[in-house]
């Protein structure tokens, strides 16, 4: 029998950005929570999720470059806002290799694959886009999470 719990954290990255996570579970195995970040330039990702006997759902709000919201994995809805002026060019010009966002771990099932803390894909320290899509900002955007960002990823394109 699952036991109720609640956990949360909030961590500044030392460069004007902030990441956070909050989650709670009940005695029936239902889980709900949210996580996200905002960087010093105004880029953000906010994810609200729930999981239980009926499955997993997530709502993502972001203004990250390269995300258009046209491709929504199963049970995930994306609300994409315009990327702040001057940001898109910084993240898309060739600057070097990006690398992996970190080692992923998480929970979930089906084509979505779960919530990952660090996933393949992502913006490799302002380098080129890495394996499989946007996945998260690597190398330090999430203070307190070793190497890698947090992202909901699908088996298809690496959110």
Automatic annotation (TrEMBL):
<dbReference type="GO" id="GO:0062129">
    <property type="term" value="C:chitin-based extracellular matrix"/>
</dbReference>
<dbReference type="InterPro" id="IPR000618">
    <property type="entry name" value="Insect_cuticle"/>
</dbReference>
<feature type="compositionally biased region" description="Gly residues">
    <location>
        <begin position="96"/>
        <end position="108"/>
    </location>
</feature>
<feature type="region of interest" description="Disordered">
    <location>
        <begin position="140"/>
        <end position="159"/>
    </location>
</feature>
<protein>
    <recommendedName>
        <fullName>Cuticle protein</fullName>
    </recommendedName>
</protein>
<dbReference type="InterPro" id="IPR050468">
    <property type="entry name" value="Cuticle_Struct_Prot"/>
</dbReference>
<feature type="compositionally biased region" description="Gly residues">
    <location>
        <begin position="146"/>
        <end position="159"/>
    </location>
</feature>
<feature type="region of interest" description="Disordered">
    <location>
        <begin position="1"/>
        <end position="35"/>
    </location>
</feature>
<feature type="region of interest" description="Disordered">
    <location>
        <begin position="57"/>
        <end position="108"/>
    </location>
</feature>
<dbReference type="Pfam" id="PF00379">
    <property type="entry name" value="Chitin_bind_4"/>
</dbReference>
<dbReference type="GO" id="GO:0008010">
    <property type="term" value="F:structural constituent of chitin-based larval cuticle"/>
</dbReference>
<keyword id="KW-0193">Cuticle</keyword>
